[in-house]
Amino acid sequence: MIPMVDLKTQYLALREEIDRGILQALESTQFILGPNVRAFEEEAAAYLGAAHAVGVASGTDALHLALVAAGIKPGDEVITSPFTFIATAEAILYVGAKPVFVDIDPQTFNLDPELVAAAITPRTRAILPVHLFGQPADMEALNALAERHGLLVIEDCAQSFGATRGGLQTGTLGTAGCFSFFPSKNLGCYGDGGLITTGSAEVAEHLRVLRNHGSWQRYHHSELGFNSRLDEIQAVVLRTKLKHIDEFNAGRRRVAQRYTAGLHALNGVTPPYETAGGVHVYHQYTLLSPRRDEIMAALQKAEIACAVYYPIPLHRQEVFAEDCQGLSLPVSEQVAAQCLSLPVFPELADDAVDLILETIGAALA
Fold first, then answer.
1. 202 and 55 assigned to the same domain
2. Do 201 and 263 lie in a common domain?
3. For residue 95, which of 119, 123, 66 has the smallest C-alpha distance?
4. Is 185 in the active site?
5. The one catalytic residue among 8, 73, 98, 185
C-alpha cells in the first residue's frame, strides 16, 4: 500500500528530538502560551521574513481572527476562490461578511486577477487568495488591484508554508498570512494548529488579545475574544519540524518533478503547472484528466492511495445554495470534475513514484 502521506516515517526520523521536547514540556507543566509557543512564533517569523507571527488553535481560526483584526464586518464582501477547502469561506461567514466567489485560472487553480477586478463592488473590503496546493497566487496583480481600490489582502497559506513568489515567502505578501499546521501539511503538528503573520505590531497585539478571550491582562477583557491558542506540545513538534522544512519541501518537489516528467509522456493527462517567478511546494500533486475515474480505479486496485481535492466547488455546496443560486464558474467546475491528487511526501521513494506512473500509464493505454 502506498499512502497519500507517511507521517510515521517522518516521526521515526525525528522521534528522539520530538519525544525529548514533549517530555520537557510535560515536566514544565506550562501547557498554554508557554515558552515553546513564544519560541516557535519567533522562529517561524524569522524563517518567513515576517515582522510578527501569532500562534492560534487552527488554520481556520487563523483566517477567522485575521478577518476580525482587519475589521471585516457584516455587510462587507470578501472576494475569494470557490476551489478550496471550505474553511476559507467559513471564516468570512463567521464575521458576518459575504464570500464573493470568483473563478480560477485553469493552469494554476488560483484566483484569476482579471475576474477579481470585475467582481469588485463598493462593498468589497478584502481579497482572500488561496495559495492552492502550495502554488503561490499572482500576488503582484492582486496587490495592485487592492492598492487601486483600497482593499485588504488576507492570504490563505494553509497549504503553502515555504512557498515563495518573487523571492518572498507566502504569508508576507499581503496584509496578513494565515497558516494551518494540520498533521498532513508540509509543516504539520500532531493535532490542530495555526499561525497568523503580519507586518503590523498593532495588529499582532490585537491578535494576541483576540486569541485569549479578548484579554490583554488577566481577568481584564477589552472586547469579545476567542479561545484559540496554539498549545505547548504542538509548538514543540512544530519547532522540531521547522528546522527541516526546506528539506521536506525539496523532497516534495523531487517527487513532483519525477511525476511531471513521466506524465508528459502520456496522453489524456495534464500535470500541474508551475508559474515562473514562484516556488511551488506541492502540498498536493494534482493532475487533470477526463479519464480520472479510470485512473482512480486502477490506482485503488493496485493499493495506491489517491484523492479528489476538491470534488464540489464551494459555490455548489449546499451551505451556499441560496446565495450562489444560478452562479456558474466553469473553470472551477471543470477542474473539480477532472482533478486527481497523487501521493506526495518527502519520503516517497523514486521506485514508488515509478510504480504509480506505470499504473496510470496502463490505465490510459
1. yes
2. no
3. 66
4. yes
5. 185
